[in-house]
Amino acid sequence: MYVQKFEDLNKSDIGIAGGKGANLGELTQAGIPVPPGFVVTAETYEKFMEDSGINDKVLDILDQIDINDTKALQSAAEEIKSIIIETPIPEDMVMFIKEAYNQLCQRVGEDDTDVAIRSSATAEDLPEASFAGQQDTFLHVSGDEEVIEYIRKCWASLFEARAIFYREENNFEHSKVLIAVVVQKMAIADKAGVMFTVNPSTGEEIALIEGSWGLGEAVVSGDVTPDNYQVDKTNNEIINVTISDKKVMYTNDESGTSVKVNVPENLRMERVLSDDELIELTEMGKRVQAHYGEPMDTEWAFERDNLFLLQARPITTLDGDAPAADDDAGVEGEVLVRGLGASPGIATGNVKIVLDIDELDKIEEGDVMVTTMTTPDMVPAMRRASGIITDEGGVTCHASIISRELGIPCVVGTGDATKTLKENTGVTLDGKKGLVFEGIKKVEEEAPQATAVAAEAPILTVTEVKANVSMPEAAERAAATGADGVGLLRTEHLMLTAGIHPGKFIADGKEDELINTIAENVQIVADAFYPKPVWYRTLDAPTDEFITLEGGENEPEEHNPMLGWRGIRRELDQPEILKCEFKAIKKLHEQGYTNIGIMIPLSQSPSELIQAKALCSEVGLEPHKDVDFGMMVEIPAAALTIEDYLAIGVDFVSLGTNDLTQYTLAVDRNNEFVAKHYTEEHPAVMKLIERTIKKCAEAGVTCSICGQAGSVPHIVEKLVKFGITSVSSNADAVAEVRKTVARAEQKIILEAARKRLE
Ligand code: PEP
Ligand code: MG
């Protein structure tokens, strides 16, 4: 059978319809509302590949590639994908598919109705990575010709480079991995999200629901922080509602294409789901769970008043354990409060209620911290706590994330722990089941172990969060934020405070003085952060800023200094200054400050870097060997040719988005008349940023950002998704950015976990 309607499929049809298709069939058969559709079966794909004769061609190409040669792999993937996309589908197949689509149009009473087209993995036990690429969902496809075209694109996605790589690495036979394609009426959601039919970390009978405005893509992709709700399934009581600031949504533009837009101001903090809708969803969750006989992870959408499920798959729980609803971990007694188990483990201690940040000092080693919701500035006190309990929050809130990283048992979303629990009374908390018991219970080793880990473990995000420093006197404060280093040490300020133009030091034969001035100032910063890395940026001196310094009277008067004699182009014209800077860094390295790296600003071509490296070697400091040597990407030319820089060797790259934005948009960043046109979020700037990050990731080179965009949480969230490895913010934004980064990372992990469950 080339195509199968959802009505004719059930969950055992994975081999025919893939996991997604089989589950949609099962839901349809169970009478759960699912937008109607059909599946182009795995057999159709197999037959297409065989009958059109391209199977052998594809296998031949695959036979010949060395998967570790990234370029060759990439071009083989492109070649295979274009073969598939360009090969006509046999007439009889086309006929069946078009027929199924036209029947769907008739059924919904719409010509050329909009459908979503998604790939559906046929081998359940194969990891996601072995299967299709990322672009395997196409929304708003309309008309039978377009349906055919996108089915071929779905098939082609089986040969994304990373999927080929994965299969080769793990010895999966390419020809054994088949793909089915789901074609489903688009649900034009007004609101959508996900629902776990039980708490995935404890197995408790609580529906965990996340929802936001517009199509579900916003929640699933992690583009938005959704509202979070919890409903007790035993009595339909709504036990927690957390409303988030929902900044973006996916919606349809006039042509019916889905576009990401800002959520209207009045809806951002508006609650998405009413009590009635939550109960309707919970009831549907119960039906789905009862039908499958196990807890489920679902995607839902409301189109006006109509609720649909778009996806359902069993939860095997996020940590891979089966939910243990009746495992009481040995603790018994009176339960004082209940919430969500956010970080597993048993902890005991005296309750300390913190309602204000000033009260953190009362948390002593081994106390149980009870608070409304934790914030980043509570982290040092959280470290001292043996357990953490909050009124608010869900399994991905700050308290949950941090306590998991610290290994401290934690219960969140209790509603009223700060009111119910009594100061200085002993409690025992079960961070897996989300229960808090009266009294200090005897428990096995677990709690002391967790505390020991807590005392030592640093707060970690995998993406480094660093600080920008311009003034040495601000270094201590910046270091106190816990930043992972200095991602930009602006040198200009050191010179401005010295009050003498660096060119004058040279002209007066006082090179040693210049070297010492630089070294002394940089040392203050390197000390404050030692042994964390400090990237010293060589002088980027616009002529108009240096004109007022002693000796600056010789600065040329330029028509537009922003486009003028600054950055590495100027330093290569005045190599004596650059050499003094390198000598200062060398001196510090010799004193043991090997944490200092060198960063070159405003480069437009790799030859500048080659020359700068040669000057560095000339003073006896060998780039890459003695010192990390990196560059900023501030000119579109550098972003567009970053691979050429990577080829000559750089230890790290940092995006200078302040300049990158002005040079991309032709908007002088110092000119107030055009200030309203200045935005880092212009798609052209974002494309250059994304390109740079991805090319660096491919080459395994650290990519950071040190422009102002790195202090803007919602931009940082995107950068983490692009794969940035470090973010350098203004010192006062470090805490907030770290929070954003942690959340963005958690979302990626959660998303990957959900995908694995597919
Ligand atoms: C930048 O251009 O983004 C940057 C960090 O450098 P500056 O602001 O010092 O030009
Ligand atoms: Mg700059």
From TrEMBL:
This protein's record includes keyword Metal-binding: yes
GO molecular function: ATP binding; metal ion binding; pyruvate, water dikinase activity
Keyword presence, Nucleotide-binding: yes
Catalytic activity, EC: 2.7.9.2
Biological or metabolic pathway of the protein: Carbohydrate biosynthesis; gluconeogenesis
Domain (PEP-utilising enzyme C-terminal) ranges: 461-745
Catalytic reaction annotation: pyruvate + ATP + H2O = phosphoenolpyruvate + AMP + phosphate + 2 H(+)
Domain of life: Archaea
Swiss-Prot/TrEMBL GO biological process terms: gluconeogenesis
Domain PEP-utilising enzyme mobile: 363-434
Pyruvate phosphate dikinase AMP/ATP-binding domain sequence ranges: 16-322
Cofactor(s) recorded in Swiss-Prot or TrEMBL: Mg(2+)
Keywords: ATP-binding, Kinase, Magnesium, Metal-binding, Nucleotide-binding, Pyruvate, Transferase
InterPro entries listed in its UniProt record: ATP_grasp_subdomain_1, PEP-util_enz_mobile_dom, PEP_synth, PEP_util_AS, PEP_util_C, PEP_util_CS, Phosphohistidine_dom_sf, PPDK_AMP/ATP-bd
Summary of the function given for this chain in its UniProt record: Catalyzes the phosphorylation of pyruvate to phosphoenolpyruvate.
Family the entry assigns: Belongs to the PEP-utilizing enzyme family.
Name of this protein: Phosphoenolpyruvate synthase
